Amino acid sequence: MSSPNENPVGDETFDYNDRYGITRKRSWILPAAIFAIIGIPWTIWAALDHSQPELSSKLYSFSITGEREITMRYAIERRDPDAVVLCTLVTLDFDKNIVGQIDDRIEGGESTVERIVAIPARLPPVSARIVSCRIS
């Protein structure tokens, strides 16, 4: 007795896909090729560009130097050493309200600059932070 997949007439195995005209679809190949051609170089470019930001800042420490003053030590790194940078620094009270704010202007010169800045406050401060640094 023959199995249902065997062709009793010849040596070939019987295939329902051939009999009913069903073909394998390879519609994913074109989108995959387009993604590979466009997507992979874009991903590499984006990773390299964003791994080296134009400007970054780091807060090292702060200390309360008076009843209404905090001294902050921070650093910036900029890709263009000649760019002028403006950093907004704030002091906060116990409830995290802003009690003091200054804009520290850093002239061009070196790519990495470390600063120590005194920030006056209208109430006794307990902490300080860098709100933003931007190239002006």
From TrEMBL:
Keywords, in A-Z order: Membrane, Transmembrane, Transmembrane helix
Membrane-traversing stretches: 28-48
InterPro entries: DUF4307
Name of the molecule in the record: Unannotated protein
Naturally occurring in which organism (per UniProt): freshwater metagenome
